[in-house]
Amino acid sequence: MTMHSNSRPHFLRRPLLIAAAASLTLALAACDFGGGGSDGPSQPTDNTPVSLSERITQLEASGQLPRLDRSTDLLGSDANANGVRDDIDTWIAGRALSAQRTKALTRAAKTAQAALTVNPADSSAVRAVARQGARDINCISTVFAGDTASNNGFELHKAIEKYTFNTKPRVLAYITFNKALSGAVLSLPSGDTCDE
């Protein structure tokens, strides 16, 4: 079966929607509104407005938001050199999933990272990253088949994308990747794509 550019998986066919969502994420997560310099978030009083950066710090401290790398470095920290940013590795590990599911999500995170650094002028390299992304989605749908919303593989994959492309340089690199892919024809994966 062949898929055309207008029938790509969600992460390939909606770059503008992703860019808009990522821009919102940037507005919420990557901006510094001058709240730095204190030892921690200030506790709001009834009359004290809380800055966006302070609120994000509070949500991260409470565990409601993951602590994400918001550095200007395109790839961020990867201490174990597995191709996945450390904060994304930590987030995946925090899901307390089976080894098979953890591996599937980690592969998807590695592919998302690859989209940030692939040479957009190398069309076969761009297509290879896109093909791997399709294989990752197929694998995730297989290992998470029939799960509830709290363990929904599709939602976890979307979260990985959202967390990976969380700064302006990362969003711009991802948009460049999608532009380079525009018009490409890819084959849909079939069978077990979790075997690599």
TrEMBL record:
The name under which this protein is listed is Lipoprotein
**Where does the record locate the signal sequence feature?**
1-29
- Lineage, top-rank taxon, reads Bacteria
Q: Which UniProt keywords apply?
A: Plasmid, Signal
